[in-house]
Amino acid sequence: MTNLATKWGVDESRFWIHGRMPQETVRFDEPTGLWNVYGHAETLAILEDPATYSSNTLRVFLTETNLDVGGAFEGNIAQMDPPFHGKMRKLVNRAFTPKTVADLAPRIATLTHEFLDEVSGGDRVELVSALAYPLPVIVIAELLGVPADERDLFRGWVDKIFDNAQQVSLKPTEEEQRDIEDSLRRTRGLQTYLGDLADERRRTPREDLLSKLAEAKVDGQRLSPTEVANFATMLLFAGHVTATMLIGNTLLCLDAEPDIEARLRADRSLLPSAIEESLRYLTPFSTVHRATVTDVEIAGQRIPKDQVVAVRLGAANRDERVFARPHTFDPGRHPNPHLGFGRGIHFCIGAPLARLEGRIALDILLDRFPVLRADPEQPPTFLPSTDLTGVKSLTLVTSE
Predict the structure, then answer these.
(1) Alpha-carbon torsion 174, 176, 178, 181, what sign?
(2) 3 lies in a domain?
(3) Is 167 helix (H, G, I), strand (E, B) or coil?
(4) End-to-end CA distance of the chain
(5) Contacts of 158 (CB under 8 A, 6+ apart)
(6) Strand pairing partners for 302?
(7) Rounded distance, CA 338 to CA 279, Å?
(8) Using an 8 Å Cβ cutoff, are 265 and 236 in contact?
(9) Could you tell me which of 315, 301, 305 has the C-alpha nearest to residue 43?
(10) Residue of 369, 111, 120 whose CA lies nearest to 240
(11) Per residue in 216-260, pLDDT tens?
């Protein structure tokens, strides 16, 4: 299946999808100033040691660049370390418990059918716009308490934030710096919207997640409006972006392996393992970043204090020391210790929801369409950021 990348023109920067791996497990990249880590064991060691590898990479970026981020990252749980990270995460853990997530199944199924009803009758469907994007957006918007008549506005901000090709760099060019600043401006629009909504919830609480955040206290202090807005923004991303990529990526994998698709159609109990293998094979969030708190040594490489480490999850999920035939899509793979949702204290809080949405959506798609084949006349396009692996568009032929 290594021809998937070549067939659909996946960018060469995602070399692991092309079936290639670097000789070095750890490598310094001079143009970006980042230390790249590609190995599975090395990735685990980093993600499970927040005392040595801090999530607060912003302090290094701001030292090395001239970016003015304002309050864009205040309350951003992805940038937090213990103990404050744990206190903030507890505020929303109950929204993503197994029971709470399982109770969403009927709503997810209803929405899936409604979206597919809108595109039924033809012989083609553009999966991302028809289902893979709107489904998880609506689910997380309902959890947060975003008014139904404002969800299109909600979606528009997210589209703009992710529709850019910028990569993380400690040495951004002038053009790259302008792109970053533009992305921050777009993010602030969403954060302002959510902050205003949180203020309204403080005055008139409801039974939604935004109300709980607006009323919550950490160490006896209420979160500021900016903290609530930024926290809610991260929940939005955790709650829907992974699911969007997961659904599209899994169908792309099945398109390349028709025999596996046939087995899934005959036995839907195989869907969960196919989803796990998709998360390994086409890892949605393929890179996370950490900052060294002290001098460290990884795989024989000495990395000084206050350096940014780019942890390449997508490459770690192809490490042949851990995965037999790593460049083969194998839903029967067992064990499958992939890192598609990260690991450690920052393990993706939306993972149970993304898995459920993926399973239900794929099950219904297989029920409703006798054929799900990528249209060679309208090849898939991919999200431009090299830190993300997911289809931006995927047109499927749905009948013979």
Answers:
(1) negative
(2) no
(3) coil
(4) 23
(5) 137, 190, 236, 237, 240, 241
(6) 297
(7) 7
(8) no
(9) 315
(10) 111
(11) 889 998 888 888 888 888 887 776 788 999 999 999 999 999 999
Task: Check: CB of residue 369 under 8 Å from CB of residue 392.
Answer: no
Residue 125 lies in a domain: yes
Global pTM?
0.94
Task: Name the domain count of the chain.
Answer: 1
User: Residue 297, class by beta-carbon neighbours within 10 Å (0-12 exposed, 13-18 middle, 19+ buried)?
Assistant: exposed
Position 225 in a domain: yes
User: Within a domain: residue 150?
Assistant: yes
CATH value at residue 169: 1.10.630.10
Residue type, 24: E
Asked whether the bond before 376 is cis by omega within 30 degrees of 0, the reply is: no
- Per-residue tokens: 359: 């399973």
Buried b (16+ CB within 10 A) or exposed e, 330-353: bbebeebebbbbbbeebebbbbbb
The alpha carbon of residue 83 and the mean position of all alpha carbons in its chain are separated, in whole angstroms, by: 24
User: Which residue type is seen at 36?
Assistant: N
Choose between 193 and 327: higher pLDDT.
327
Cross-strand bridge partners of residue 287: 312
Measure the CA–CA gap between 230 and 311, rounded to whole angstroms: 23
Structure tokens at 101: 């997530």
Alpha helices in the chain (DSSP H): 3-8, 40-47, 58-64, 84-93, 98-102, 105-117, 127, 134-144, 151-162, 174-203, 209-215, 225-256, 258-266, 271-281, 313-316, 351-368
Domain range holding 388?
73-284+338-397
